[in-house]
Design brief:
single chain, alpha+beta, Phosphorylase Kinase, domain 1, Transferase(Phosphotransferase), domain 1, five-stranded antiparallel β-sheet, 15 strands
Length: 318
Amino acid sequence: MDSALIKIPGYRISEELYNGSRTIVYRGYRNDSLPVVIKLLKNPYPSFSELVQFRNQYTIAKNLNSPLIIQTYSLEPYQNGYALVMEDFGGISLKEWGTGENRRNITEFLQIAIALCKALDILYRSRIIHKDIKPANILINPETKQVKLIDFSIASLLPRETQTLMNLNVLEGTLSYISPEQTGRMNRGIDYRTDFYSLGVTFYELFTGELPFQSNDPMELVHCHLAKLPPSLREVKNQKFTLSGVEVSKVKSEEIPQVLSDILMKLMAKNAEDRYQSTLGLKFDLEKCLSQLQETGEIKSFPIAQRDVCVGVVCIST
């Protein structure tokens, strides 16, 4: 599709933001001058499942009234599919933001991580599992640092669902970020803790600039998620963040906060029972890291997950 040729009644398209394998996203204006982002299916003759997934984004997101979730304005017919019209708050993907030339600081990372915990807490209170947490599905305004979660195309409204063994070509989610249970190779149900694993991979990539597991072979990636431990943060040489104003790549590995490494490793535990059990428990630890950093300029190795409690399907922070 050429943005110069795109004509959507009631809207003016100004630029192309994203051109992927399945969708294309434009920035533009509604006729009343409201800035909008419009998402379209790339397939000119979409399948029934593609249409269902596309409608799913609208059905779920329209009922989530939060500044941490992208606001969805409308779902409108367009050619053989739909146009999903959303708010434009000047955001770029966290993936794009994280690959910028300027090194980020740990304070920024913690603030983003805390905001994402709050966003996930809103989802889980509504019994929604996102199932595709990754930097490309998180937007940040580079100026205000406001964070919003997007893309509910494969989200589930159930507190738990069963994942069956599927061909890797039709597996739901993004293989580099997918949890072990979401691969369908563990013979167990999926609940909100699948998002915690993907969040851990997202944090890992944001912090280090690298994915914990890298391979062009889908089966090898699945094996890594199921059985291989990711390299410790202290083992990754190309850090993207600074610690107390000093580039992490120029400080000794033992000076990298062990607590942050512990938090990420817990999120990426192979078994859901070994991960964090509540967004609020995770948020408590991240907020403690932030307060220590702001007060003393460093993060000391406190025991993590002490406020993380799960009772049945209701998980709380004590």
